[in-house]
Amino acid sequence: MRLTIEDLSVRYGGTTALAGLGLSAMPGEVLGVIGPNGSGKSSLVKAVAGLVAHGGRILRGADDGAAARIGYMPQDTSTRAALTVLEAVLLGRLGSLGLRVKPDDLAMARAVLDELDLGRLAGRYLGELSGGQRQLVFLAQALAAEPKLLLLDEPISALDIRHQLGVMQTVRRLTHERRLTTVVVLHDLNIAARFADRIAVICAGRLIRHGRPAEVIEPETVATVFGVEAAMSAAPDGSLVVTPLRAVTAAAPMDGGAPEAAPHRPPAAPPPGAVIRNGR
Asked: Most buried of 55, 100, 176, 199 (most Cβ within 10 A)?
């Protein structure tokens, strides 16, 4: 499912969260959305999910009127619902729970739990889980719907490094295998550079850069948008590595305006012997 966003705007009362944003994502592509706190990343995902009022157009697929299966994982995964892990995942697949569940639906829910190493928690209640475990359950809930469009708002923020890598490996693999269109909000620039096919940089509600990781995550953009001086290098497998050096004065104003986009320059040369393959 191709996702096309045209002139998107979101307001909360007198506060503008997004203004004039245009963006697209293709099937089989992980689109990473990065930007400083309060830049509008969550508002973007909520607008695409249909959870907040917005201006502009959001087109899903060739026929925008066709029903689209969307898997959405919110940033806030706290819940008071008295559901077990298995019930929560089934709810994501079925939309509501009845007295009987079809064997195929039950098998799919258990398969998703196993894929995320959650099978042992199937009978536990959500309120008994750690924040990281609950985050994985909500990811499983989003995947259980077998979506064509997968929207993930900071899906790894509460996870340890092993589970961060494992989750992003799974998201990237399923996106490519199932030809999903995946939009994922991330804070870690190295995770974004390693697992996203394309990156959208948002600041003060506006799109600043959009392209392949090695084209977008470069010193001037990182300094302008995040207020951080950083060095770029390459990992042994060719993935971009961002090393933050020091905080600097960000060019992004605090009054809701967007900074001027940094001029494009080729990414910094990797260290001797390293190779960046296909911009990754």
From this structure: 199
Residue 211 forms part of a structural domain: no
Does residue 234 sit within a domain?
no
pTM for the predicted model, two decimal places: 0.84
Residue 122: domain span: 79-145
Inside any domain, residue 126: yes
Residue-wise pLDDT tens digits, 221-276: 999 999 999 999 999 999 999 999 999 976 544 344 444 434 444 444 434 333 33
User: What tokens appear for 167 in the block?
Assistant: 């989750």
Number of domains in the chain: 1
Q: Residue 137 falls within a domain, yes or no?
A: yes
Could you write out the three-class secondary structure of the chain?
A: CCEEEEEEEEEECCEEEEEEEEEEECCCEEEEEECCCCCCHHHHHHHHHCCCCCEEEEEECCCCCCCCCEEEECCCCCCCCCCEHHHHHHHHHHCCCCCCCCHHHHHHHHHHHHHCCCHHHCCCEHHHCCHHHHHHHHHHHHHHCCCCEEEEECCCCCCCHHHHHHHHHHHHHHHHHHCCEEEEECCCHHHHHHHCCEEEEEECCEEEEEECHHHHCCHHHHHHHHCEEEEEEECCCCCEEEEEEEECCCCCCCCCCCCCCCCCCCCCCCCCCCCCCCCC
